[in-house]
Amino acid sequence: MLRLRALMRRTGVTEATAGATLVVGDLTLDEDTREVRRTGEEIQLTATEFELLRFLMRNPRRVLSKAQILDRVWNYDFGGQANIVELYISYLRKKIDTGREPMIHTMRGAGYVLKPAG
Q: How many other CB atoms sit within 10 Å of the CB of residue 87?
């Protein structure tokens, strides 16, 4: 059990807490109610979009590779198309960034990063 906890700590996974709310800039994600808001406006997400955003928000300012995202959001045994990450990032951008300063950035050759606007 101690080994698992140490591994989880090193990979950035934290224990679930009651009322866990992730905040990056003006974007908030409530893990319990599954509500997402940006500048107070509620954003409706599918289950996969929510999981992708949660992973990005748990790792703000950290460049995440497509492989890391596939492994964490779709799990290692996912047998779908390789461009699924790009597709879902574009869905999130349309919902989160449209009409606002962008928060989701592409780092060419490296992956994606979520940074607070401003």
A: 10
Distance CA 115, CA 61 (A): 5
- Identify the pLDDT of residue 17: 46
> Can you read off the two tokens belonging to residue 51?
């999981």
Geometric angle at alpha carbon 113, from 30 and 51, rounded to 5°: 35
For the entire predicted model, the pTM comes to 0.80
Q: How far apart are CA 6 and CA 74, in angstroms?
A: 23
The arithmetic mean of pLDDT across residues 38-53, rounded, is 95
pLDDT digits (tens, 9 = 90+) for 71-102: 889 876 666 676 899 999 999 999 999 899 99
pLDDT at 75: 75
Q: Is 43 exposed, middle or buried (0-12, 13-18, 19+ CB in 10 A)?
A: middle
